[in-house]
Write a structure and sequence with these properties.
The complex is a heterotrimer of chains A (326), B (332) and C (341). Chain A has 326 residues and is mainly α. Chain A has helices at residues 2-31, 33-39, 42-59, 61-64, 105-141, 143-157, 161-175, 178-195, 198-213, 216-224, 228-265, 276-284, 293-320. Chain A has one domain (37-320): MetI-like fold. In chain A, helix 12 packs antiparallel against helix 13. Chain C contains 15 helices and two strands. In chain C, strand 1 and strand 2 form a beta hairpin. The longest helix of chain C has 39 residues, at 242-280. The two termini of chain C are 22 Å apart. Classes of the chains: A mainly alpha (326), B alpha/beta (332), C mainly alpha (341).
Chain lengths: 326, 332, 341
């Protein structure tokens, strides 16, 4: 019984210890330069807000969107091609108008943003994990591993990322049987975009590892016998997270644009789950017939989202750059 | 206090104040310092990193860049004020009347231009020579600073020179237009120890030959002892002691200078332990009131914590300490 | 130096072989070439015989070698869909893409570099801030969106805008196809006709805009970086004029790394031409490739891959060699190794 109690006490002590440390690091963060710079940059705050709004809308699409555009029972062909509410013929039920099938544009945009952001974030995560891992390996192990990885990176860099993404995704459609592709299209797309972008992470991380590797504390740690993986994770990684984050924000913008472009070309997401890019493509056909809203609103949403992410990335780069501080 | 040579001072700095505008407010990096350099004299400016020496040097030649700026005081060169000149006038003084040598010779030279090109460009900017004459002068300068095979090496790129050679080129560039004052900011810190003595010797000799005064900024007291005529000791943006080198080294007055001298191992002197001054120089946003050194000073008393001492003559030197001068009389 | 060139050449050849490998794998593993070539009535025996005759039972390496040999001569086989030699198809389409890419490249470089230098030199000027804001918008708009917007303004709505304004401000520009072209040998050019030139305007602006803003921001960033260096400070300390510092020293040092970047950007232009061709239905290689992907027309895809791979490898090689020529530090490894004092 006593053992039980002391065990629990030790447990609670550990938990309180951890929460205290966490609260402490939170406090330090909010006291720090980065938060200061954030709260004093209206641009950064607005773009962060916009991004959060988009992400929120995307995550909670079923709750936020006025209609579910995939629910055929809510879609009436008679409502097709209605202009936005402030124009002649507009209908207050459909704030931004409807498309050729009678679906509410605002709803399709929200669901479309969900796909765009989903693919965007997932591919950035993939590229980051892959790139950072390869960079760590390459920098720390050196030798053949380094040579091979960097060679592959060099070769890949000869080609623009979009072409690589195009290739992987386009080919997968031809190579895989149709129903298999219909099931795993998301993963294929994420793989395609993620694979096209890992190189920049790898190079940056590798550079940092090479710098840290020569430092004495690393050599000391090795002498003591700490496994190299631990050294890399605990020492190198924190130093490198700053530039990696900056790359990630730029990457996110490019990933969203790439997905949109692939979808616009007809290769990206399937028509059953349209992203903002698909919506633009589908709406493009109606541009000349006068129903401009079908393509312009999704397009504008795309542009605003990417702009917000780019602005955030710009601010982050400036905030983390030690040379520009003070 | 008149400089050793007894001439009218070439450079007069009066109550110079340099501020840095930071994200969260303005910091004072150089807090009202005054000193003079006479014609042909070598003034050493010594202190720890962050004491404000480099900023003072940059202020003198007018190269302070935002967020730093001159916030007060005056700088006079040959009697004329130069700190409030418009950019173009200041530019004409730079290189021609006041030259500067930076710390790292590798980054001081443009890697994409030959050494000769950089030399002739500077010569042509400040004089009316033809291209050919400028090139000849450039070769002469290279020979003066001790670059062998100057006619061949003049067309080489900076990376083709070793560190010591590069710094010689930098000195040549600084001396191109025969300035009367050279500001040397840590000219040997980035070099091998074996080369340091050569370069310092070269600098001293050339300046003497060209009749140029030198403001030698360094944290290395040994270099000062070898090269300077007078030395100013800086601490936390203020000058705490200034005087002839021999005096300051042998009989330091200010407790900080005492600590500084005590921390240098001298050949021939067997000391049990080197002096170590407790604590560290305060950060710019945490300078204590009164004398900046008082938290670390073994002799500090009440007045030190309240009033900032100014430079007062103490026999052959000047020290900013309440232990001396007026303070001494007060303490009785 | 020779070692460097040889090494780069070998690397380029390696890359080409790798691309060729990927292109060839398409043939082998995607679909069955025989089925694509013959009709349904062909018997199994005929198919087997055809397979034998075309050498499709030979080992992989042999087929690969044969593929490469043919590719080097420009023979990419017959298009499944169009039933014509791929080389012919490409020859028809290449001029369109190349002309478009050339005009876009000239625009992107011709405007991007000077703007980058200007915004780098005049950091806080009003005009600089305007350009910078516009550039942010520029890199946030995907190419296809820019194209659509341009079509909207200059194609669809131009008459309405002019009517609303009361005067003719917005010209009506062609938004579809290439206009009239003139045949010079096997090359069809749009430069020599008015409609051809007009048709180039919107697509080339679309293609150039993204690259232009990218180049501008890169040049600016590099310029700011250079202006912070010690050698610029030392140049100022020597009293050199602003002109000498900005255009003699800073500019030269900025442009050296910019060469690599712009070289790679030009490669990007050829890739992004794909998108522009789709938006404006410009009859170029990119459009051909997109159609080939959806139609699984392997010979066309393989040919496009090899061609584009070749372009990129050549561009990268030229850029690397240029770098070598321009930066003296890369040339003198020997001298340093010889240990000169």
């Amino acid at each position: 019984m006593a053992l039980d109690q002391s065990g629990r006490q030790a447990g609670t002590a550990a938990a309180t210890g951890m929460t205290a440390r966490f609260a402490d690091s939170l406090r330090r963060f909010f006291d720090g330069d980065i938060w200061y710079s954030f709260t004093h940059s209206p641009v950064a705050m607005i773009s962060a807000l916009v991004t959060v709004v988009f992400v929120g809308a995307a995550l909670f699409a079923p709750l936020v969107a006025p209609y579910n555009p995939f629910d055929l029972s809510t879609v009436d062909l008679l409502d097709s091609e209605l202009p936005p509410v402030w124009q002649d013929g507009g209908d207050p039920r459909f704030l931004l108008g409807t498309d050729a099938q009678g679906r509410d544009i605002l709803s399709t945009m929200i669901y479309g943003a969900r796909i765009s952001l989903g693919v965007g974030f997932a591919s950035v995560a993939l590229a980051m994990v892959l790139g950072v891992a390869l960079g760590l390996l390459s920098g720390y192990l050196g030798g053949i591993v380094d040579a091979v990885i960097m060679r592959i990176a060099d070769v890949q860099l000869t080609f623009p990322a979009i072409l690589i993404a195009l290739l992987i995704d386009g080919l997968s459609r031809s190579v895989l049987p149709r129903d298999l592709h219909a099931q795993i299209w998301f993963y294929v797309l994420v793989l395609a975009i993620g694979l096209s972008f890992w190189v920049q992470y790898a190079r940056t991380v590798r550079g940092s590892v090479l710098v840290e590797r020569g430092k004495e504390y690393v050599q000391a740690a090795r002498v003591i016998g700490i496994p190299p993986l631990l050294i890399m994770l605990r020492h190198v990684l924190p130093n490198v997270m700053g530039p990696v984050l900056v790359i990630a924000t730029i990457n996110l913008a490019i990933a969203i644009i790439t997905e949109a472009t692939l979808s616009f070309l007809g290769i990206g997401v399937p028509l059953t789950s349209p992203s903002l890019g698909t919506l633009v493509r589908v709406g493009n056909d109606f541009l000349f017939s006068g129903s401009w809203w079908i393509t312009i609103f999704p397009g504008a949403a795309l542009a605003v989202l990417v702009l917000a992410v780019n602005l955030l990335g710009d601010w982050l780069r400036d905030a983390l750059n030690p040379k520009l501080r003070g | 206090m008149t400089p050793v040579s007894g001439n009218r001072p070439l450079l007069q700095v009066e109550d110079l104040r340099v501020e840095i505008r930071g994200r969260r407010g303005t910091l004072v990096a150089v807090d009202g310092i005054s000193f003079e350099i006479g014609e042909g004299e070598v003034l050493g400016v010594v202190g720890e990193s962050g004491a404000g020496k480099s900023l003072t040097g940059a202020a003198v030649i007018g190269l302070l860049e935002p967020p730093c700026r001159i916030a007060g005081g005056a700088i006079r060169f040959a009697g004329d004020r130069i700190d409030d000149l418009p950019y173009e006038k200041l530019r004409r003084i730079r290189g021609r009347h006041i030259g500067m040598v930076f710390q790292d010779p590798l980054t001081s030279l443009n890697p994409l231009y030959t050494v000769g090109r950089q030399l002739t460009e500077t010569i042509l900017t400040h004089g009316d020579l033809s291209e050919k004459a400028a090139r000849r002068r450039a070769i002469e300068l290279l020979q003066e600073v001790g670059i062998p095979a100057a006619e061949r090496r003049i067309d080489q790129y900076p990376h083709e020179f070793s560190g010591g050679m590069r710094q010689r080129v930098v000195i040549a560039l600084a001396l191109c237009a025969n300035p009367r004052l050279i500001v040397a900011d840590e000219p040997t810190t980035a070099l091998d120890v074996s080369i340091q003595a050569q370069i310092i010797g070269l600098l001293k000799r050339l300046c003497r030959e060209h009749g140029a005064a030198v403001m030698l900024i360094t944290h290395d007291m040994g270099v000062i002892a070898e090269t300077a005529d007078r030395v100013a000791v800086m601490y936390a943006g203020r000058i705490v002691e200034v005087g002839p080198v021999a005096e300051v080294v042998r009989r330091p007055r200010h407790p900080y200078t005492v600590g500084l001298m005590g921390s240098i191992p001298l050949v021939g002197h067997d000391v049990e332990r080197l002096t170590q001054i407790e604590g560290a120089m305060p950060r710019l946003d945490a300078i204590p009131p009164g004398c900046a050194f008082n938290p670390r000073c073994p002799h500090a008393f009440v007045r030190c914590r309240q009033e900032r001492p100014l430079l007062e003559p103490v026999e052959l030197t000047e020290a900013a300490c309440w232990l001396y001068g007026e303070g001494e009389r007060q303490r009785g | 130096m020779i070692a460097f060139v040889v090494r780069r050449l070998l690397q380029s050849i390696l890359v080409l072989l790798a691309v060729g490998f990927i292109a060839f794998s398409l043939f082998t593993y995607v679909g069955d070439p025989i089925n694509n070539m013959v009709g349904q009535d062909t018997t199994l025996e005929q198919r087997t015989a055809l397979r034998e005759r075309l050498g499709l039972n030979d080992p992989f390496i042999v087929q690969y070698g044969r593929f490469l040999a043919k590719a080097a001569q420009g023979d990419f086989g017959i298009s499944y869909r169009h039933r014509r030699p791929v080389a012919e198809l490409i020859a028809e389409r290449v001029p369109a893409t190349l002309e478009l890419s050339l005009v876009a490249a000239v625009l992107a470089l011709g405007l991007g570099v000077p703007l980058g230098v200007y915004t780098g030199l005049k950091r806080r000027g009003f005009l600089s801030q305007v350009f910078l804001t516009l550039s942010l918008v520029g890199i946030s708009l995907p190419t296809f969106l820019i194209g659509i917007l341009l079509i909207l303004v200059f194609g669809v709505l131009s008459q309405d805008i002019n009517a609303a304004l009361g005067f003719s401000l917005v010209p009506q520009l062609p938004t579809f196809g290439r206009g009239d072209t003139v045949q010079l040998g096997w090359w069809s050019t749009g430069f020599l006709t008015e409609s051809g030139l007009l048709a180039l305007i919107l697509p080339s602006i679309t293609l150039a805009l993204f690259q232009l803003t990218l180049i501008m921001r890169l040049v600016r960033a590099e310029m700011l970086e250079v202006l912070r260096t010690d050698y610029i400070k030392f140049a100022r300390a020597r009293g050199l004029s602003n002109r000498a510092i900005n255009f003699g020293h800073a500019l030269k040092n900025t442009l050296v790394p910019v060469i690599t970047i712009t070289g790679l950007q030009l490669g990007s232009i050829i890739a992004f031409a794909l998108i522009t061709e789709q938006v404006f239905q410009w009859p170029g290689m990119g459009l051909l490739f997109i159609q080939a992907i959806s139609e699984v027309d392997i010979p066309v895809m393989a040919a496009y891959l090899m061609l584009v791979g070749f372009f990129f490898v050549v561009i990268n090689l030229v850029v690397d060699l240029l770098y070598f020529v321009v930066d003296p530090r890369l040339r003198a490894d020997k001298a340093v190794a010889a240990g000169q004092p």
